[in-house]
Amino acid sequence: MKTTLLLLCSLLMAAAVQTSNAQAKIGWINSAAIMDKLPEAQDAQRQIDNTVSQWQSELAKMQNEWQLKYEEYDKKKLILTDQLRAQTEKELQDLDKKIADYRNKKFGQNGELFAKQNELMKPVQNKIFKVLEDIAKEDNYDYVFDKSGDILLMYTNDKYDLTGKVFERMTTFNK
Q1: Reading across the β-sheet that carries 26-29, which strands appear in turn?
Q2: Burial 36-54 (b: 16+ CB within 10 A, else e)
Q3: Which neighbouring-strand residues pair with 94?
Q4: Phi-psi bin for 140: left (phi > 0), alpha (psi -120 to 50), beta?
Q5: Beta bridge partners of 156
């Protein structure tokens, strides 16, 4: 699927460029393969994995605590007074909320894991991008894609930037 999409994008760009009688030079990289081989990326990944392992361990402790408390409650709930039953149920709910909050804080969309990955991996990714940009300019590439995940345009030659032209035409039409 990704290869097909990459091929389709490449063909569309090639067709668009050929209509202007120019030949675009297109390349691709696999940034995941590069990251897998770079020692500094491997070190960063190890640090992330260690941190995640610690967080998962803490989460497992909290879940075990909840499970033990629930099992104890379940055994005794028939002999507990209404007040003790309600109190224990509230404690279980509070502990459940604490677990959910911890999980979200560490692993949520904007959680600490996201921040840690950004902190450790971003410098490596920036180095890759800088080297890629240098190579693309040296070897006269017009477009370079990254095929390691979702197809991502990593480099473009500024001579193909239509942003100003589109903006100009949009402001002309709106007058």
Answers
A1: 26-29, 143-146, 152-156
A2: eeeeebeebbeebeebbee
A3: none
A4: left
A5: 143
What span, in angstroms and rounded, lies between the C-alpha atoms of 35 and 33? 5
- CA angle (14, 146, 52) in 5-degree steps: 165
**Tokens (6 digits) for 139:** 């070897």
Q: Which domain holds residue 106?
A: 2-173
When divided into structural domains, the chain yields a total of 1
- Answer for the pair 156, 129: CB distance below 8 angstroms, yes or no: no
The encoded tokens of residue 168 equal 């100009």
Quote the DSSP letter at residue 109: T
Percentage of the chain beyond pLDDT 70 is 84
Could you tell me the pLDDT band of residue 63, with boundaries at 50, 70 and 90? very high
Q: What are phi and psi of 136, to 5 degrees?
A: -60, -40
In whole angstroms, what is the distance from residue 25 CA to residue 136 CA? 9
- On the 0-12 / 13-18 / 19+ scale of CB atoms within 10 A, 127 is middle
Q: Which residue has the tokens 């990704």?
A: 2
**Backbone CA torsion sign across 48, 50, 52, 58:** negative
Q: How confident is the model at residue 65 (pLDDT cuts 50, 70, 90)?
A: very high
